[in-house]
């Protein structure tokens, strides 16, 4: 892709760690006010931006479960009374900004609830219609109605609603649900108009199409990476599949592209189980991997910072029960610190080069260096359930380093030979 089409990312986003906040399940109360009390600890953990799952009123028609799907939006300019009032939301945003946190809203542009305000308040051609004149049900989601993007009035209606949250309520950007289901040209137009309101707008696409980086999005999902990681942990694929993906990915996207990498999110957690169910003993190393790979913008989902092993109900109240800081709390704190302190690990075009070091166990072991302007991060990762004897030459990368997770100083020799336990890893820093 022509790099000249890239719009510079907000400065805060290059070293950023994103937290996906499920308001319904984070606290027993399930409200903005209760969630607001967690913002200081998220900032202390090292989170830079909080992405809120959709906060809008939810449709009643064909409602799922007792409370419905976040993604069946009834009113783009309202807040779900389940969570509180608009004033409660504004206080949440104000508190977040006071702590230095950015706030991103989940935006559902492809469809609305079947009883959304737009169904009756806008012309019929704002929706795709079936032979009976009813709004089309997209992808089998029978609580939703498909918007008609052949109608440019729909484009402007969406943009005006997004502008409302930027201009009137101070949000910093959007995570855009199923972004590939609406035209890329719409996102380009939306980004252009919205950046006139907020020049440092941040846009994240739940999609992987490379053309989304053409004047539209700052970051997109790394779904393929996520599935490969799950498969490696479950023994269905090996490290060479991850390696092949990384090199192919480098050719598919502009260097400025940011990729959201994760071991869990609301979809994976609710429908496929927690990261511990999917990754087992590999949960720790795979979390670390999302912080050190090229272009990566890491995501932490609600409960992961506690090591909370639970698959949340999607359509009903199912709040965390007595979550306590644990091993994963400290792991994420150290990984966030690693990301913030090392320019080599920044996302987008500011990040460091990615150079692999040849080793004796390439089906299990990844040994690589990220480096830029004198900042170097050396990673040795046994991405397998096997104990292995690692053997590799560091060459020009030998020397003194600090261990990112222990703080210990170590000297890395020209030739490294060491036994590595299953799913073990070291991340070493040299400045």
UniProtKB/TrEMBL annotation:
GO annotation (BP), single: carbohydrate metabolic process
Recorded superkingdom: Bacteria
Classification via Gene3D superfamilies: Glycosidases, Golgi alpha-mannosidase II
GO molecular function, one term: catalytic activity
Signal peptide: none
SUPFAM superfamilies from the UniProt entry: (Trans)glycosidases (SSF51445), Glycosyl hydrolase domain (SSF51011)
Listed InterPro entries: A-amylase/branching_C, GH, GH13_cat_dom, Glyco_hydro_b
Protein name (record): Alpha-amylase
């Amino acid at each position: 892709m022509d790099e000249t089409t890239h719009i510079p990312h907000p400065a805060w986003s290059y070293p950023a760690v994103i937290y996906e906040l499920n308001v319904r399940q984070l606290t027993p109360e399930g409200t903005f006010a209760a969630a607001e009390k967690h913002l200081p600890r998220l900032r202390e953990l090292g989170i830079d931006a909080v992405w809120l799952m959709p906060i809008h009123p939810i449709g009643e028609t064909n409602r799922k479960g007792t409370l419905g799907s976040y993604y069946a939006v009834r009113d783009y300019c309202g807040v779900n009374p389940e969570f509180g009032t608009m004033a409660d939301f504004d206080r949440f945003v104000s508190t977040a900004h006071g702590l230095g946190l950015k706030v991103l809203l989940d935006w559902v542009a492809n469809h609305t609830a079947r009883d959304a305000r737009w169904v009756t308040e806008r012309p019929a051609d704002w929706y795709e219609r079936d032979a009976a004149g009813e709004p089309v049900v997209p992808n089998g989601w029978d609580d939703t109605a498909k918007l008609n993007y052949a109608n440019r009035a729909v484009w402007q209606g969406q943009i005006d609603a997004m502008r409302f949250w930027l201009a009137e309520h101070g949000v910093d950007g959007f995570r855009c649900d199923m972004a590939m289901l609406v035209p890329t040209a719409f996102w380009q137009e939306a980004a252009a108009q919205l950046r006139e309101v907020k020049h440092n707008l941040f846009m994240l696409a739940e999609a992987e199409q490379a053309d989304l980086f053409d004047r539209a999005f700052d970051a997109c999902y790394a779904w393929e990476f996520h599935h490969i990681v799950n498969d490696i942990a479950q023994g269905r694929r090996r490290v060479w599949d991850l390696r092949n993906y990384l090199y192919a990915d480098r050719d598919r996207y502009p260097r400025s592209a940011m990729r959201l990498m994760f071991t869990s999110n609301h979809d994976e957690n609710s429908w496929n189980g927690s990261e511990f169910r999917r990754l087992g003993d590999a949960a720790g190393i795979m979390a670390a991997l999302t912080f050190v790979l090229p272009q990566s913008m890491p995501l932490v989902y609600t409960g992961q910072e506690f090591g909370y092993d639970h698959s949340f109900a999607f359509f009903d109240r199912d709040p965390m029960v007595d979550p306590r800081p644990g091993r994963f709390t400290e792991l994420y704190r150290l990984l966030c610190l690693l990301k913030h302190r090392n320019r080599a690990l920044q996302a987008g075009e500011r990040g460091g080069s990615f150079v692999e070091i040849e080793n004796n166990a390439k089906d299990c072991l990844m040994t690589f260096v990220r480096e830029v302007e004198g900042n170097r991060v050396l990673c040795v990762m046994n991405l397998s359930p096997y104990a292995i004897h690692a053997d590799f030459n560091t060459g020009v990368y030998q020397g003194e380093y600090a261990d990112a997770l222990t703080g210990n100083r170590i000297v890395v020799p020209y030739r490294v030979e060491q036994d590595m336990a299953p799913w073990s890893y070291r991340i070493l820093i040299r400045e």
